[in-house]
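Thread: magnesium ion complex, take 2
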Amino acid sequence: MVIDMIKSAHHPSELMAMLKIKFSGKVPHDHKEGLEVLANKLNQRDFCYAALNKVSRSFAVVIQQLPRELKDPVCVFYLVLRGLDSVEDDMTYPAEKRMPLLRNFHEKCFEKGWKLNGVGDSDDYRTLLANFDKVIHLFLQLDESYQFVIADICKQMGNGMADYAERKVNTLEDYDHYCHYVAGLVGIGLSALFSASGLEINRLQQETDLANSMGLLLQKTNISRDYYEDLNLGRVFWPKQIWGKYATQLEEFHNKPSSPESLACINEMVTNALQHVSNCILYLHLIKNPQVFRFCAIPQVMAMATLAKIYNNPNVYTEVVKIRKGIAAKMMIDTTNMDRVRFYMEKFVREIQNKMSESDPNYALTRKRLNRIIEALDDVLFSPENFQERTIEETVLF
Ligand code: MG
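Output below.
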């Protein structure tokens, strides 16, 4: 925290935001003990929240924004998928066991007491799987409509992961497919959970293209940002159809981070992600509940901030570039309605525009996609037919 505050020292509003979040009571308790110790001390439900906090601090924070009704279903949903992902990522777990487990992991959710020892590529992931009976316990307490959604998404994702374990992400189509399995399905599942809760309209779960875009924007942002980390881990998620235009080996970007080819490549990765932003804006427009809105909107705004930061940025090739925690804290507090989403989206669109150069091979496409974002914001905020869809009360909320 202290280091983050120093980084934001010249931005007083960021300092205020960090302090506000720290003392808001909205930040989940950060247990000092390791997850394994906690597993022996906590009841099933508390273990699930402690596990969530350990494996994804940022998700644990945004989950606190949700209405009470949705917290447990979304927490379990996340942990089930995290468990599945831990199986996918542990390359030391033999493929002849890993593949069938990926495909039938969804059935384990209904097996009281099921757990798996010694699998996972980090201590926390191994502990999560070794205590998976606790996640299943909470899963089985959920309303059946939630159980159905979680198991169905887990089944689709597990099959997609198993398919992609045997092939690489080469084309743009592969890239979209892979991101659909690992992230788009999360968006689709969350929509179904929101609709099942009755807090959001039924139509939301039918808008699967929009929900898919919500996941794809986040996933593609992470993949674009994490070049260096993934390179070190020997993983490749960048589609060859993009990077192959600028290099013959992925490592070349690391060796020549500021070359025109390297910059053109990261810019094309960002431009690819930008195609999903307008759909995300339309999705956010459909959300009625203010707490659900924040839960959905905050990660999208953060993704857009990250895209603006990594565009034309050679540091992507030599380190993991992150947005300042102070900016993140400010957006977390501030992203409460569509007007604020517009404010941030426009700010990051301008940041990218200011870094664009006509010599970039994707200049025209990037410009087109940025313009589409502004149009989508205008559509949802200013076009009268969209306003007519809302009741007066909702207009006030937005
Ligand atoms: Mg994985």
